[in-house]
């Protein structure tokens, strides 16, 4: 079944996006081929820049999200996958990981003193996405039973942006203490991942 996932970082100014999706097997390991979100531009592209992936709302200079603000970035409103950056294939009922970078929102809180924390991530799913989906018609509208709003989709999960272990390498005290507490055992895989992602 084709499932479209909407990934929403609830804090303003959090410039992170889903870099990669993986299926998690019954032992908790990531398995199989990676998948990507629609219209992904790889960081390996020499012309890559963050603006190609980030979708900042409100779209205008107003302070509030408007009725017309779209759920997805223009280049990501349809199944714009490529052969090298395909959708994730997962069986119904699978557990999946949405991998994103913390970009300092966790390890360098001093960069955003206006925020209390790195916030929560809301994950919505639908097998019937529309190019016109707006934030206001989905976020805090679709519910976990699929009965909210127009009923085309549902809230799958709400998770903290900070899983308590993530870090990017920098000299901040949080990153340094996590580097020591959660050394990447599979350094090769981690590096390959970083290579993929950075
Ligand atoms: C599809 O995605 C690619 C990024 O991989 C982007 O360059 C392209 O403009 C997108 N196509 C459309 C019609 O938005
Ligand atoms: C990092 O430093 C801040 C400010 O000194 C302190 O509040 C915090 O507990 C420290 N965190 C860690 C993980 O060491």
Question: Low-confidence stretches at least 5 residues in length (pLDDT < 50)?
Answer: 10-14, 187-198
Q: What small ligands are held by the chains?
A: 2-acetamido-2-deoxy-beta-D-glucopyranose
Tally of DSSP β-strands: 6
Average pLDDT figure: 86
Oligomer: single chain
Portion in strands: 15-25%
How many distinct helices?
Answer: 3
SS-derived structural category: alpha+beta
| Shape field | globular
How many separate domains make up the residues?
1
What integer value in Å does the Rg equal?
Answer: 17 Å
Largest sheet: 3 strands, antiparallel
Q: CA-to-CA gap between the ends?
A: 31 Å
- Overall helicity: 10-25%
Summarize the model shown.
With 198 residues, the chain is α+β, with helices and mostly antiparallel strands. The protein has helices spanning 135-138, 173-181, 187-197; strands spanning 4-9, 18-24, 30-35, 95-100, 120-126, 153-160. The chain has one domain (1-103, 121-165, 191-198).
């Amino acid at each position: 079944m084709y499932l479209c996932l909407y990934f929403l970082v609830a804090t303003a100014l959090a410039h992170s996006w889903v870099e990669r999706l993986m299926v998690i097997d019954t032992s908790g390991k990531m398995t199989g081929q990676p998948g990507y979100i629609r219209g992904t531009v790889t960081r390996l592209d020499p012309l890559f820049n963050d603006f190609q992936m980030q979708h900042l709302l409100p779209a205008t200079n107003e302070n509030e999200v408007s009725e017309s603000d779209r759920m997805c970035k223009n280049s990501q409103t349809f199944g714009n996958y490529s052969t090298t950056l395909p959708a994730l294939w997962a069986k119904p009922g699978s557990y999946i990981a949405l991998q994103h970078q913390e970009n300092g929102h966790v390890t360098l809180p001093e960069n955003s003193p206006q925020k209390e924390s790195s916030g929560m991530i809301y994950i919505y799913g639908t097998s019937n996405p529309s190019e016109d989906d707006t934030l206001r018609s989905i976020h805090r509208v679709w519910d976990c039973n699929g009965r909210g709003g127009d009923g085309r989709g549902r809230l799958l999960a709400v998770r903290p942006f900070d899983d308590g272990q993530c870090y990017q390498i920098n000299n901040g005290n949080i990153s340094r203490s996590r580097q020591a507490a959660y050394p990447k055992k599979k350094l090769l895989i981690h590096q390959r991942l970083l290579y993929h992602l950075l």
